[in-house]
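Budget justification aside, the reviewers requested a transparent look at the raw inputs and outputs of the sequence design task funded under Objective 1. We therefore reproduce one unedited record. The lines immediately below are the structure tokens for a 224-residue chain.
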């Protein structure tokens, strides 16, 4: 079942603490079955290794986002990626998650979260991993308008039927580039546990460029 929820910034508590993200290579050196792993997949803007990129929506504050996510008591794994196809990159993430699970990390302790193209990649991972216990957060990953091509292809190929896991969709009502993932969730039917939250912000797509409480808290609360 998909529910539409509305958050106001005044109702959200402050974030506290300090933390840094790690790479998969660093994570594999000392995997801890009791840790909560949060895999963050960035948007298209940072493909090729760029950081702090200026866009029409402002600066993509990648490092601040990673640090803020880590302050929630999570072990954050994130890497910049080259310009590769979303399906190819999703396959590499699937392989790494399977390695984590094989090394003893319970699937319930793994959450994959992505924004923009990273959100679409997250959807591809959820339709490829074939594990009902892993959690996912898709943020502005279901394109609309001029950015609807990849998502429409996902739907045409009925990849939604292959979705598994706990999947949360976050999008901003005023976003002109991405919207609801309802169609994908409907294809999946009862084989997934899904929720969708429509956020309200004048920043539109740019809300996810900064570590705003508006999306950070529902995303991290989705972890099990």
């Amino acid at each position: 079942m998909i529910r539409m929820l509305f958050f106001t910034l005044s109702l959200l508590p402050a974030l506290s603490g300090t933390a840094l993200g790690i790479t998969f290579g660093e994570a594999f050196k000392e995997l801890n079955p009791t840790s909560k792993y949060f895999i963050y997949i960035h948007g298209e803007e940072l493909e090729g290794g760029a950081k702090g990129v200026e866009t029409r929506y402002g600066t993509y504050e990648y490092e601040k986002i990673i640090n803020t996510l880590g302050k929630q008591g999570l072990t954050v794994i994130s890497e910049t990626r080259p310009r590769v196809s979303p399906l190819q990159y999703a396959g590499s993430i699937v392989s790494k998650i399977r390695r984590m699970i094989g090394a003893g990390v319970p699937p319930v302790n793994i959450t994959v979260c992505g924004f923009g193209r990273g959100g679409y990649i997250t959807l591809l991972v959820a339709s490829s991993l074939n594990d009902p216990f892993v959690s996912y957060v898709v943020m502005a990953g279901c394109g609309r308008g001029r950015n609807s091509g990849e998502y429409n292809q996902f739907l045409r190929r009925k990849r939604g039927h292959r979705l598994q896991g706990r999947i949360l969709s976050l999008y901003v009502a005023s976003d002109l580039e991405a919207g609801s993932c309802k169609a994908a969730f409907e294809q999946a039917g009862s084989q997934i546990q899904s929720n969708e939250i429509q956020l309200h912000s004048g920043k539109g797509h740019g809300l996810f460029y900064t570590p705003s409480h508006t999306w950070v808290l529902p995303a991290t609360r989705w972890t099990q």
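Residues 9-221 form a domain with the Rossmann fold fold (CATH 3.40.50.1820). The CA atoms of residues 12 and 198 lie 16 Å apart. Computational costs for records of this kind are itemized in the attached budget.
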